[in-house]
Specification:
Oligomer: heterodimer
Strand content of chain A: 15-25%
Structural class of chain B: alpha/beta
Number of strands of chain A: 12
Number of helices of chain A: 11
CATH superfamily of the largest domain in chain A: PAS domain
CATH topology of the largest domain in chain B: Chemotaxis protein chec
CATH superfamily of the largest domain in chain B: CheC-like
Distance between the termini of chain B: 28 Å
Order of helices and strands of chain A: HEEHHHHEEEHHEHHEEHEEEHE
Shape of chain A: elongated
Radius of gyration of chain A: 33 Å
CATH class of the largest domain in chain A: Alpha Beta
Largest sheet of chain B: 8 strands, antiparallel
Helix content of chain B: 25-40%
CATH topology of the largest domain in chain A: Beta-Lactamase
Radius of gyration of chain B: 21 Å
Order of helices and strands of chain B: EHEHEHEHEHHEEHEEHHEEEEH
CATH architecture of the largest domain in chain A: 2-Layer Sandwich
Largest sheet of chain A: 5 strands, antiparallel
Chain lengths: ~325, ~325
């Protein structure tokens, strides 16, 4: 950091143009004394705040700008003085110190100027910190771009249909298909079934072999599921270790053939992860769409109940929901 | 009468610096040790009437060495020479029987004054700097990595001192780790940061006199609750609070360490504004935006720990390959 108090190499007549530079630079420059009275206030500060150097000279910063978070600012400044070391804050912490208008009030989308702040200890001749330098950088464009990028990423994620781990449909996409199938079956009167299944004692797999082993089990299960599906069936990862399958034009009885085939394949599967050989099972609940279902959620809930009965009955099995 | 002087420091560069700082007209025989066990051995043989002792060393550190001297009641005058300049470090070594505490890097005047204050006179008329031709220390070029390590050791001591004052506690200083890597190898080199550890990272660029790089602070997020407690931070430690703490710590550590390096090398670095690379991220995400994964780096890793607290943070200095020549030239001045 250039120390302008060290004017040993600067002629008096040069100070004029040096000051001119400091005035014109597009960065806010403030010097405060230890009581937070303003000593220096450059043009950037004057033009953006509407307060001139003559008005604010020797006045308290906090009285002139009551919006400044006094305690926060003092805490940062005191550590600068104590440690004789600069402190930096970024707009993510606090969007601004001074609420200034966006430099581009018309074409810019931000309502205010985002600011990064640097606090610098200014040493006097006796090596004590008697003043604090404050630098205010306009980072509006960077901040706006970053915020927009984050928003776009969130949107992309919600628009995405695929579950990262398994490459199956994610829950949102799968429920969408289930809703469509529900409406189609209701309208056409075709029989359709939905299956919910999960991995038995999955928590134990995670606890015993670690989460990465757990992920591998989920990936293997999805792969076997995909191999077992018919072309018109739609599978999705519903939650952690929970999966859903839509079986269009399939009765509960025929669905049971599908679930038993899947169950047996998984039962005989051994997942190898590092030095472990993991053997596991699944439980599956089936619901055939019946006229008493009033929404796709009712339909789904019935398959969930059937799954629950499997768990109660000792796991590693599949059951069709029977109403009543 | 020839005095037996022993310099105990793990860094050959630091030993050389220390040897050069001794008064040229002091009639001595100079001996060297790389750690406490060697030092104790030499003292027992009468080869360490005056001992210049570093604190941070592998095998046996300076504190343990002082304890050993005391428990065996060995005849030596110990002057601790350390990069760790925390007030508590000074108190601890004085409590363990050290006569004086000198901050690294050492300078001849300070050493001369201290020796004189203990009534040691330098009357050897043959002013040849005998210590530099001593049998255990040849004039072979020092190891460059060793000099970077020593440079970092002193800088990190200053940063630790500030951190200790900020947190009002004692900071444990390990030995800096110097490596030459490609960016893509960095993750492997950071063995103690587990790939699934949740971390926060801040980086700050620096440049000056042909030396450029970045200081990268890696903060293990399991440390936040203890840091908040030390900084007397009230209220919930949510994301915003974590960011405040992170910026406070990184401001202190990065600027103090970079200033420490700059001061020793007589450089004025320009520092960029720190940038938060991310919160709740994994280590591999830090460098994925790097322009070239294959560019070579000089890396100096400094791990900070706080006594009795679960606080872990690493400060990495990443220096670009094209800075090395300028850096080496500056380092060579340190021995003149």
């Amino acid at each position: 950091m250039t120390d302008f108090t060290d004017s040993g190499h600067v002629n008096i007549k040069d100070i004029h143009w040096l000051m001119d530079m400091l005035q014109t630079i597009d960065v806010g420059l403030i010097v405060l004394d230890r009581d937070y009275h303003v000593m220096v206030w450059n043009s950037f500060m004057e033009n953006h705040s509407g307060v001139g150097p003559a008005q604010i000279k020797d006045k308290s910063l906090f009285e002139s700008f009551p919006d400044i978070p006094e305690q926060w600012f003092k805490q940062k400044s005191e550590s600068v003085v104590l440690l004789k070391s600069s402190t930096f804050t970024v707009w993510e912490q606090r969007p601004y110190l001074f609420k200034f208008k966006n430099y581009r009030p018309i074409t810019g989308s931000a309502e205010f100027m985002y600011q990064n702040i640097t606090l610098i200890p200014l040493l006097s001749a006796d090596n004590e910190v008697k003043h604090i330098g404050v630098l205010i950088y306009d980072v509006t464009d960077i901040a706006v771009n970053k915020v927009k990028l984050q928003e776009a990423n969130v949107k992309l994620e919600s628009l995405s249909m695929t579950d990262h781990l398994t490459q199956l449909n994610n829950r949102g996409a799968w429920e969408g298909y289930l809703n469509q199938e529900y409406s189609r079956s209701k309208r056409s009167g075709h029989v359709s079934s939905v299956v919910m299944f999960d991995i038995d004692h999955f928590k134990k797999v995670n606890d015993t072999y670690g989460h990465q082993a757990g992920d591998e089990v989920i990936r293997r299960t999805s792969a076997i599921l995909t191999e077992t599906l018919r072309i018109s069936d739609v599978a999705g990862r519903y939650g952690g270790e929970e999966f859903g399958v839509i079986l269009p034009d399939t009765s509960g009885e025929n669905a049971l053939i599908f679930t038993e085939r899947l169950r047996k394949r998984i039962e005989s599967e051994i997942v190898e992860y590092e030095d472990y050989k993991i053997n596991y099972t699944i439980s599956l609940g089936i619901s055939e769409l019946k006229p008493d279902c009033e929404s796709y959620l009712d339909w789904l809930e019935q398959s969930d109940k059937a799954l629950y009965f499997c768990k109660e009955a000792g796991r590693n099995q599949s059951k069709v929901f029977i109403s009543g | 009468m020839t005095t037996q002087v022993l310099i105990c420091d793990d860094s050959s560069f630091a030993r050389k610096q220390m040897a050069r700082a001794l008064p040229a007209n002091w009639d001595i025989e100079l001996n060297y040790a790389e750690h406490g066990i060697e030092a104790l051995d030499l003292i027992r043989q009468g080869k360490g009437e005056v001992l210049f002792l570093d604190l941070n060393m592998p095998v046996m550190d300076g504190y343990q060495t002082l304890e050993g001297i005391r428990s065996e009641d060995l005849p030596t005058m110990t002057i601790v020479v350390s990069g760790d300049i925390q007030p508590e470090a000074m108190q601890r070594v004085k409590g363990l029987g050290a006569l004086e505490f000198i901050k690294k890097p050492v300078d001849g005047n300070t050493i001369g004054q201290i020796l004189a204050s203990y009534g040691i006179s330098f009357e050897n008329e043959e002013a040849a700097p005998a210590q530099l031709t001593s049998k255990t220390f040849d004039n072979a070029d020092y190891d460059l990595d060793d000099s970077y390590q020593e440079l970092a050791n002193v800088a990190m001591g200053r940063a630790a001192d500030l951190l200790a004052r900020l947190l009002n506690t004692f900071v444990i200083m390990p030995i800096p780790n110097v490596k030459h890597l490609e960016i893509s190898e960095l993750e492997m080199a950071m063995a103690h940061v587990k790939s699934d550890d949740s971390i926060s990272a801040v980086c700050q660029g620096f440049i000056g006199s042909g030396v450029a790089g970045e200081a990268l602070l890696i903060f293990n997020e399991s440390s936040y609750s203890d840091i908040a407690e030390l900084m007397k931070y009230e209220g919930e430690i949510n994301e915003a609070a974590q960011l405040e703490l992170l910026m406070d710590i990184s401001s202190v550590l990065c600027s103090a360490c970079l200033n420490g390096i700059a001061n020793q090398l007589d450089i004025n670095f320009s520092l960029g504004h720190p940038m938060v690379i991310g919160q709740h991220i994994h280590f591999d995400e830090i460098l994925k935006g790097a322009a070239s994964q294959w560019s070579k780096l000089l890396t100096i890793e400094m791990g900070y720990k706080i006594e009795n607290k679960n606080i872990n943070c690493d400060l990495l200095l990443l220096i670009t390959e094209d800075s090395i020549d300028a850096l080496n030239e500056r380092v060579s001045y340190l021995l003149e």
